[in-house]
């Protein structure tokens, strides 16, 4: 075998192995899973008590087939009996505690039946806080969501930066 033939055979073999490896990753079940990279940023003014002191909140995440029941059900029904309140729309749920000033980064694998994630935060003053939010999911894709929680509720994006001497 000549030197050129060996190099050609080596290059062909290398390309074949690379193509095979690329095919394996494309066929991997993990490459088609739906993911949610959710970051929850709590400000220092989270869930103020009657004396103006920040307090933790319980955050519940609900994987949903449809968001309508979640959007139209009162807080206490969702918090105390989510399975009954969300009935056939609830796929899965989990709970976290978020402290003032804390950042919680979650990398979630979403169930194939889920199309939305409902976020509920147990604020002390429910009437004055936006205590729920819905995040749409794109099937088979990785979705990134950055939310921040302050005294007024759950917001999309990152917390605004306070000027010197100001409270956010």
TrEMBL record:
Organism: Pseudomonas soli
UniProt cross-references to Gene3D superfamilies, sorted A to Z: Type VI secretion system, lipoprotein SciN
InterPro entries: T6SS_SciN (IPR017734), Type_VI_SciN-like_sf (IPR038706)
Keywords: Lipoprotein
Keyword Lipoprotein among record annotations: yes
Name of the protein in its database record: Type VI secretion system lipoprotein TssJ
Presence of keyword Lipoprotein: yes
């Amino acid at each position: 075998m000549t030197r050129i033939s060996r190099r050609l055979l080596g290059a062909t073999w290398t390309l074949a192995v690379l193509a095979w490896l690329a095919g394996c990753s494309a066929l991997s079940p993990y490459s088609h899973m739906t993911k949610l990279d959710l970051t929850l940023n709590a400000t220092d003014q989270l869930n103020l008590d009657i004396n103006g002191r920040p307090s933790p909140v319980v955050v519940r995440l609900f994987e949903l087939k449809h968001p309508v029941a979640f959007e139209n059900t009162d807080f206490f029904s969702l918090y105390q009996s989510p399975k009954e309140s969300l009935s056939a729309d609830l796929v899965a749920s989990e709970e976290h505690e978020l402290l003032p000033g804390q950042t919680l980064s979650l990398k979630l694998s979403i169930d194939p039946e889920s199309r939305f994630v409902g976020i509920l935060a147990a604020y002390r003053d429910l009437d004055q806080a936006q205590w729920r939010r819905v995040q749409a999911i794109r099937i088979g894709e990785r979705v990134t969501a950055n939310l921040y929680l302050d005294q007024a509720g759950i917001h999309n994006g990152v917390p605004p930066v306070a000027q010197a001497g100001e409270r956010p």
